[in-house]
Design brief:
TonB-dep_rcpt-like, single chain, Plug_dom, 22-stranded antiparallel beta barrel, mainly beta, five-stranded mixed β-sheet, 4 helices, globular, Maltoporin, Chain A, about 650 residues, 36 strands
Length: about 650
């Protein structure tokens, strides 16, 4: 195991010793004064008792950051890598690993998974919410298959939207800025049918990166429109939550050597979510969830090339034109039933079942329609042995026809120094099941409307094809961590420290691009390091948030098959940090400064060093407020972002925003 440097060890030791000299408070099993989280064990717990490392991004941090892209918020989370493959294609991954797709993190919105079944990824561009809709984000930093099943491999991101009763009746947001950024949003909230609701409509647009490494113009713009609504009602012992969202958008891609027309992808996404919670008693409740989501991608363009590339041996033309597509449709249904029981003041349990039905179809990727069913049983128990010692034991048992049976356990022990202060030791295992693209691809391009066609043959097949590997096994991770969480609520100061050692095996590391399609379980990875996070709010005027991570990664092959070590390490910076400082003056100016740093990240081993500055002025009268904001983002380095062709011409990007609330 690689060990953190002596300086890191001393620094963390001093912080922990510092905690032992502060006043201690009486122990209680739960306290409303302590920050509560729901995501790690599907159970409401304060942060000193959860069986995992957890970070929280709340509304105040979102506003102070001045960020306009949801994925960029996770630069504030220790150990989390964020990069953009294109202007519209973000990748977010805890501890990095492979930069190709966001496929090793489970992402939830109000408990609903947005993990797309067809290509096993999270498409951040097609999530039908705006950043202003978010109330808080809980990030579980570590394997979470014990609670959320396969694909909660490296961690879980749970985005919690704003409750209708907590927002203003009318809200309007406008943002203009660099790269032809034009964002508009309107929101309305009211009461109806013994409940409250919120409706949001938004339009988002920008041009993406400016140039590639050779100075050529990039074509990676995005434009989308979205609508979402949330309804909440509490009737007798029932709590009802309903959600509905729709998004339509368009993205562009750079032209390849054979492209004639601009590749444009048009997408439509919608979701429906429902949650019914029944309080059987003050200690017992049952929760039922049903979620439905659907994605439609239309990607069509014209290509050119010699006839033999399309299998046309009798066409005498030197070059022909043809129409190609990468159309894709997918849908997912989730049914979740959970029972939560507080047996006594020292013992709590949750148990439930989760069913997933996925469907995807594509002429190009699969040649047919594919279906997948996943069945999961999960449980978690929290037991307080003494006033000082508590345990969490959880696990998930899953079955999927093409993958088989899998069990993912987690056990955690806590030693409580006092209320809100604890040391933890956690051991967990998790899996990521291979996606349909990896196991069942029948990838071939059908060329239509071939022209000229002297012999009358107007259809053909591109000669390069790829076939999935049905013998793939799930990726595995075994994680060990020791940590400390302290909440000094007298000072509004929180500290979290984590030391970890992870072993990842059977990774599907090789390329899954058409020309090098080779999905096999041949990658292993060892990661170890230390993370720390500080949140300090001495008054309602000040907000300080600091994070740091040191990660050592070593990848190696588990077979004699070709394997490139950098495939699983290039998205993991050895050192990364963020610092957010925000101050609100008495005359309603809000000033924020944020810095992000990540060393050696991306295929070109680029560092990322950026400072963001935000200043806002709010004017209020009666029930109305108006705010104008300026945000500047300055890159201190001259590196591209993640990939060598992702370059902005200007080091400084600037945005002006207007916000109206009534």
């Amino acid at each position: 195991m690689h060990r953190p440097s002596l300086q890191h060890t001393i620094a963390i030791s001093v912080l922990i010793l510092f905690t032992l000299n502060l006043p201690l408070y009486a122990n209680t099993w739960d306290s409303d004064e302590l920050p509560m989280v729901l995501t790690p064990a599907r159970l409401k717990q304060n942060r000193s008792e959860v069986p995992a490392s957890v970070s929280v991004i709340d509304r105040a941090m979102i506003t102070a950051s001045g960020l306009k892209e949801i994925p960029e918020l996770f630069r504030l989370i220790p150990g989390t890598s964020v990069g953009a493959r294109d202007g519209w294609n973000y990748v977010v991954s805890y501890h990095g690993t492979n930069y190709r797709d966001s496929r090793r993190m489970q992402v939830l919105i109000d408990g609903r998974s947005v993990y797309q079944p067809g290509l096993a990824t999270v498409d951040w561009n097609d999530i039908p919410i705006s950043i202003q809709d978010i109330e808080r984000i809980e990030v579980v930093r570590g394997p979470s298959s014990a609670s959320y099943g396969a694909n909660a491999f490296l961690g879980v991101i749970n985005i919690i939207t704003r409750h209708p009763s907590d927002v203003n009746r009318y809200e309007t947001d406008i943002l203009y800025g660099t790269e032809n950024t034009e964002n508009y949003r309107v929101s309305y909230a009211d009461e109806i049918f013994n409940g409250s609701y919120r409706v949001t409509a938004a339009s988002i647009q920008d041009d993406g990166f400016d140039i590639d490494r050779n100075g050529n113009e990039r074509f990676d713009s995005k434009s989308s429109k979205l609508f979402n609504t949330r309804y909440e009602s509490h009737i007798d012992d029932y709590t009802i939550s309903l959600g509905l969202g729709y998004k339509t958008g368009e993205t562009t891609d750079d032209l390849s050597d054979i492209d004639v027309t601009q590749p444009i992808t048009k997408t439509k996404d919608y979701y429906f979510s429902s949650k019914i919670e029944k309080e059987l008693s003050g200690r017992h409740k049952v929760t039922f969830n049903y979620n439905l989501s659907s994605q439609k991608q239309i990607h069509r363009w014209t290509v050119q090339g010699p006839p033999f590339l399309l299998g046309l041996n009798n066409n005498p033309s030197a070059v022909v034109l043809a129409d190609a597509n990468e159309d894709l449709r997918g849908s997912r249904q989730d049914v979740d039933l959970q029972d939560t029981y507080i047996w006594n003041d020292s013992f709590k349990t949750i148990a439930g079942i989760h069913l997933i039905k996925s469907r995807t179809s594509s002429e190009t990727y699969y040649g047919t329609t594919l279906n997948s069913n996943n069945y999961q049983i999960f449980f978690n128990a929290e037991k307080k042995i003494t006033k000082k010692i508590s345990f969490n034991l959880g696990g998930s048992y899953e079955y999927e026809k093409n993958i088989g049976k899998n069990y993912s356990p987690r056990i955690a022990a806590h030693y409580h120094l006092s209320n809100g202060h604890s040391f933890r030791a956690v051991y967990s295992k998790a899996i990521r099941t291979p996606d349909l693209h990896e196991t069942s691809a029948d990838w071939s391009y059908t060329a239509r409307n071939i022209r000229p066609s002297p012999d009358g043959q107007t259809e053909g097949e591109f000669i390069q094809t790829a076939v999935g590997n049905p013998n793939l096994k799930p990726e595995q991770i075994a994680s060990r961590e020791i940590g400390y969480y302290g909440n000094f609520h007298r000072y509004n100061f929180q500290l979290d420290v984590k030391v970890f050692n992870d072993q990842l095996e059977r990774l599907i590391s090789n390329s899954i691009s058409l020309e090098r399609f080779d999905p096999i379980n041949n990658g292993n990875l060892k990661q170890s390091g230390i993370e720390t996070e500080i949140d300090y709010r001495p008054s309602h005027q000040w907000l300080v948030h600091v994070s740091y991570a040191y990660i050592r990664s070593k990848a190696y092959s588990s077979s004699d098959q070709p394997f490139t070590e950098s495939t699983e390490t290039s998205f993991t910076p050895k050192n990364s940090a963020s610092a957010l400082l925000s101050y609100r003056t008495k005359n309603n100016y809000n000033i924020s400064l944020t810095q992000y740093y990540a060393r050696a990240i991306g295929t070109s081993k680029n560092k990322f060093f950026r400072s963001d500055f935000r200043i806002a002025k709010e004017v209020s009268f009666k029930n109305t407020s108006f705010e104008i904001t300026y945000t500047g983002q300055y890159r201190h380095d001259q590196d591209s972002e993640l990939l060598s062709d992702n370059i902005y011409r200007n080091d400084l990007r600037q945005f002006i925003g207007l916000n109206f609330k009534y």
